[in-house]
Amino acid sequence: MKFTSRQPEPASMQLAPMIDIVFLLLIFFIVTWQFTRSETELEVSVPTSEEGAELTRPKGEIIINVMSDGTLRVEGSTVNRDQLYDKLSAIARQFENQPVRIRGDGAVLYQRIVEVIDTCQKAGIWNISFATQRPEAAE
User: Which of 63, 85, 115, 131 could form a disulfide with 39 if both were Cys (CB 3.0 to 4.6 A apart)?
Assistant: First the structure.
């Protein structure tokens, strides 16, 4: 009796599922990068504060950027007070304690910040915080 040993064929690696996973990860990182970029407008220079709390940002927080010329930017788009009120009131109806962070430029008039706070309160949002930065250390 003659026995022949049959060697199994070498396993081939499937590339299609691996390419799918790589593309999904790529899309995920691009989308999240775009969201974080629109939240922190680089043109806004927030005031400094030595005693600002280092709080972790709550999930779903809405960021309202008040530019130095007084324009309002939310989620990367410029809005006026009426549009801001419509957007915030729709969100406040869905989420009870919706957090909002106001990033006002240090050069903007205080009256403009008060108008934004007033719009938030009219829309039913009371959980409001302000963005500040630590002063640069003197060398």
Answer: 63
Q: What is the pLDDT of residues 81-119, one digit of tens each?
A: 999 999 999 999 998 888 998 988 888 888 999 999 999
| Helix-strand-coil split of the chain, %, nearest 5 | 35, 15, 45
Q: Annotate 26-60 with three-state secondary structure.
A: HHHHHHHHHHHHHHCCCCCCCCECCCCCCCCCCCC
**Whole-number Å distance between alpha carbons of 18 and 21:** 5
Domains by residue range for the chain, with CATH: 14-50+57-139 (3.30.420.270)
Residue 15 has pLDDT above 70, yes or no: yes
Residue pair 63/101 in contact (Cβ under 8 Å)? The answer is yes
Phi, psi of 104 (to 5 degrees): -90, 135
